[in-house]
Design goal:
The chain has about 140 residues and is mostly helical. The protein is built from 7 helices and no strands. The termini are far apart.
């Protein structure tokens, strides 16, 4: 077998399959689009998406502050991102365990992780609106 055929066969067997490559490109495209929205569109237009739950009720939903937290993370300000929405820091490792459990076909672990994430989200949404837990409300510290 000629050298060029051996190399192309080797590359074809060790590279990403087309479905994985497509998924990777979609993920990178979505991440780039999200970063462009947060770092370019919002500062230029000041057209942020308001929280409809907060507008209607005056209470913070579990997601209030996530856009500001993402902007803070993109700027490298982890402390400020935590003050805007601490839930994302709690859910990130739990979601990683959930994703691994689903990938390894461990339905019980996946279901438990989903239940824990849902419970944490509901509790966070309730607690951040109580006076004793006001420190969970989205707050600018700088």
């Amino acid at each position: 077998m000629p050298w060029s055929n051996r190399m192309s066969t080797k590359l074809a067997t060790t590279g990403l399959n087309p479905k994985r490559k497509r998924q990777l490109l979609w993920g990178l495209g979505l991440a780039a689009g999200g970063a462009a929205y947060l770092k370019l569109w919002l500062p230029a237009t000041h057209l942020a998406v308001p929280c409809p739950f907060y507008k209607l009720t005056g209470c913070y939903c579990p997601g209030c502050g996530i856009t500001r937290a993402a902007l803070s993370l993109l700027s490298g300000d982890v402390e400020q991102a935590f003050r805007y929405n601490a839930l994302i820091f709690a859910l990130a490792p739990l979601y990683l365990v959930y994703a691994i459990a689903k990938r390894r076909r461990m339905p019980r672990t996946g279901n438990v992780m989903m239940a824990v994430m849902m419970t944490a989200t509901l509790l966070f949404g309730l607690l951040r609106n109580l006076p004793d837990f006001q420190w969970l409300a989205p707050t600018a510290i700088r």
